[in-house]
Design brief:
The complex is a heterodimer.
Chain A: E1 7-20, E2 23-36, E3 40-44, H1 51-58, E4 66-71, E5 74-75, H2 81-91, E6 92-95, H3 107-118, H4 122-135, H5 151-163, E7 169-173, H6 181-198, E8 201-206, H7 209-212, E9 217-222, E10 225-231
Parallel strand pairs in A: 3-8, 3-9, 6-7, 7-8
Antiparallel strand pairs in A: 1-2, 1-4, 4-5, 9-10
Chain B: H1 2-11, H2 17-53, E1 56-60, H3 61-65, E2 76-77, H4 79-89, E3 93-108, E4 114-125, H5 134-137, H6 140-143, E5 144-147, E6 155-159, H7 160-166, E7 173-179, E8 185-196, H8 201-204, E9 207-211, H9 212-218, E10 224-225, E11 227-232, H10 239-253, E12 262-266, H11 273-309, H12 311-320, H13 324-360, E13 362-363, E14 378-379, H14 387-390, H15 392-412, H16 418-421
Parallel strand pairs in B: 4-9, 6-8
Antiparallel strand pairs in B: 1-11, 1-12, 2-10, 3-4, 3-7, 3-11, 5-8, 6-9, 7-8, 13-14
Helix pairs in contact in B: 2-11, 2-13, 2-15, 11-15, 13-15
The chains are: A alpha/beta, B alpha+beta.
Chain lengths: 236, 424
């Protein structure tokens, strides 16, 4: 499989099959798609349609049963555990539905953690962390603990943690599921701004209309297959 | 990264304080219980040696066969010669002759009529010789409650409880009625120089201690004694050395057909002590073993629950890109840290309590009221080099093992499930 310069994710006849007792469940079926750098796209569809499975494979958290997936030129199905970890550490940021901040660490330390894994020097880390917190508007809460933050603020910290290492790709699984409407919009606006400023590719797995309304590309999955792949406009 | 993990340990009490407290408690109890049981066994051996068998004991062959009945008619004669021979051949032991006897103690009134009377058990020990090991072995000076230790012929010490029962005070005269070694009856007056309490219920009920020469005279045993006891100079029973000595000594006399030829027995081989000591060793080993295993399971469980509680955190770290091996190693380092600190504190605390009990003891006199066992009423712990590691190593290793086993889950964890797991 070859990738052009702008294509950073490409899947070819991707299949993912999970055994379920004597039967099998085909979570992904013949998924072929390309994603270019800087896209702000969503994988949408009902529960069980394969959104999270596809997100897992792109994030090198899982490997396909057949077919291939190339992320930043690396074949996911061929990566070892160590290589997968390195790919996630250096190039992919994750945002979870329930924020998953480390409760005993401050906001600053939570955001700093991915940089520690990369062995970035202290002074440079500090600059990068404070910049990430400024992007999400939480620089003044750097010394707060997660328990002292609201849901919206916690998700902003999670976004800062995902983008602090300037990854090419950010994967977000239902990032607004635990937020009210106002906070959901604020979070999405923050991510749109980061997408524009950093040219980071954002990929969402969602069925939240508020999120969908911000996407510039919507891939609809149904029963593991791509049902529709449509350009919905430019991210706001 | 180390500083980052350190902050996490310090701030998260369930990762530091609580595991350390659990390890500390478990290790402390193990250390103390080991020291206490070891102290009790040592004390039992010591008391038996001091008041009964010595570390080694020389008797006639005939006496040895019925030693429990104290057959003084079969006693050693020519004790002085044998004693100097033993002192020459085995100078590493302190040797002393002793006669044990039973008799009747009579307390006369002003008219010489019996005021009170009691059967007694007696020791005849070499007390008027300042160099006699008996002063230390029987701990005479420290055991005197009223009056003073014997200083001249005709002095006698009687157990304080017995003195109270007979209403006898130091300075009063008592009459001892005993059987001589030839079977006739002998009556001899003594002056009570003092009363003693050994802290051993079996002895405090009715023991008297007289000078050896007085009893030799009373029992027609000139230059004789029931037994000659040998004590290692550090007062610790060295089983192997004692055994070697008895083999060597007995080999010199095995060809003698006389039933009055001397024979040497060790503490282990006398009065069924071997079986007794083996039984105690086995039971104490089982008790300590069970305790160490139980403590290890608790600490293992602590390691397991600690790791399971951090399931979410570990999931995030793996998702962010930390290698599983790195996560696993960091958890092991943490467990070594908590295990080491907890084990060190636990050992220190356990040693401190054991030291206190070694110095002051725990009085179990109420439980020993009717006991016939030669065992001190005050049980003291005993700290040995093994006490330093009996809790430390299980404390450290069990914590590490618990984390190591629970951490295997990290490697088995399907990263594909992380998104789902982290949503719950």
């Amino acid at each position: 499989m070859e990738t052009s310069d702008s294509i950073i994710i490409q899947t070819e006849k991707l299949e993912k099959i999970y055994p379920l007792g004597p039967a099998e469940i085909k979570a992904l079926d013949n998924v072929t798609l390309s994603i270019a750098k800087g896209e702000f796209l969503g994988l949408v569809g009902p529960s069980g349609s394969g959104k999270t499975t596809l997100l897992n494979i792109i994030g090198s958290l899982d490997a396909p049963s057949s077919g291939s997936a190339a992320v930043l030129g690396r074949r996911i199905e061929l990566l070892t555990h160590k290589e997968s970890s390195r790919l996630r550490n250096e190039h992919i940021g994750f945002i979870f539905q329930t924020f998953n901040l480390l409760p005993v660490y401050t906001v600053y330390e939570n955001v700093e953690f991915p940089l520690l894994l990369q062995g970035i020097p202290s002074a440079q880390r500090r600059t990068m962390v404070m910049q990430a917190l400024e992007w999400v508007g939480l620089a003044e809460r750097a010394s707060s603990k997660p328990a002292q933050l609201s849901g919206g603020q916690s998700q902003r910290v999670a976004i800062a943690r995902a983008i602090v290492k300037r990854p090419e790709i950010v994967l977000a699984d239902e990032p607004t599921a635990n937020l009210d409407a106002a906070n959901s919009h604020n979070i999405m606006k923050t991510m749109v701004d980061l997408n524009k400023e950093l040219k980071t590719t954002f990929i969402f797995a969602t069925h939240d209309e508020k999120v969908i309304s911000y996407l510039n590309r919507k891939i609809t999955l149904f029963d593991g297959r791509i049902e529709k792949d449509e350009i919905t406009g430019t991210a706001r | 990264m180390i500083a980052f993990l350190w902050k996490g340990i310090m701030r998260d009490r369930s990762r530091s304080l609580f595991p350390i407290l659990i390890v500390t408690t478990g290790v402390m109890l193990t250390v103390f219980i080991h020291a206490y049981i070891h102290g009790a066994i040592t004390m039992l051996i010591q008391t038996t040696a001091h008041f009964n068998t010595g570390h080694v004991r020389v008797m006639t062959k005939a006496y040895a066969k019925e030693a429990d009945q104290i057959p003084n008619d079969l006693a050693l004669l020519g004790t002085d010669t044998l004693l100097s021979s033993l002192r020459k051949q085995f100078p590493e032991l302190a040797w002393t002759p002793r006669i044990r006897f039973g008799g009747l103690l009579d307390v006369p009134d002003d008219r010489g009529e019996t005021r009170a009377q009691s059967p007694v058990f007696g020791f005849a020990a070499d007390m008027l010789n300042g160099n006699s090991p008996e002063w230390n072995v029987l701990n005479i000076k420290n055991s005197v409650v009223r009056g003073a230790a014997p200083s001249k012929r005709g002095d006698i010490l009687i157990a304080d409880d017995l003195a109270a029962k007979l209403h006898v005070a130091p300075g009063e005269t008592v009459t001892l009625i005993v059987s001589t070694m030839n079977g006739s009856m002998s009556v001899k007056n003594f002056t009570v120089s003092g009363t003693v309490r050994f802290g051993i219920s079996a002895m405090d009920r009715g023991t008297i201690i007289a000078d050896l020469a007085d009893i030799q005279s009373a029992m027609d045993m000139e230059n004789g004694s029931g037994e000659i006891l040998g004590f290692f100079r550090d007062d610790v029973y060295h089983a192997e050395q004692a055994n070697d000595m008895s083999i060597m000594f007995n080999a010199q006399h095995e060809h003698s057909a006389s039933e009055f030829a001397p024979v040497m027995g060790t503490l282990r081989t006398q009065s069924g002590m071997a079986d007794y000591l083996d039984l105690i060793d086995a039971y104490s080993g089982i008790i300590i073993g069970i305790f160490v295993v139980a403590m290890s399971i608790v600490l293992w469980n602590t390691g397991l629950t600690g790791s399971l509680r951090r399931y979410g955190e570990i999931g995030v770290r793996i998702a962010i890109g930390e290698e599983k091996g790195h996560v696993y190693r960091s958890m092991l380092v943490e467990s070594v840290f908590t295990g080491f600190i907890g084990s060190a504190f636990g050992t220190l605390l356990g040693l401190a309590i054991a030291y206190y009990v070694q110095e002051h003891g725990i009085n179990i006199g109420d439980m020993m009221k009717n006991s016939s066992i030669l065992m001190s009423n005050v049980i003291r712990a005993r700290i040995t080099p093994f006490t330093f590691v009996i809790g430390f190593l299980p404390g450290l290793l069990a914590t590490l093992l618990g984390t190591a086993v629970s951490g295997i889950g990290i490697f088995k964890r399907e990263t594909a499930q992380l998104f789902k797991e982290l949503e719950t």
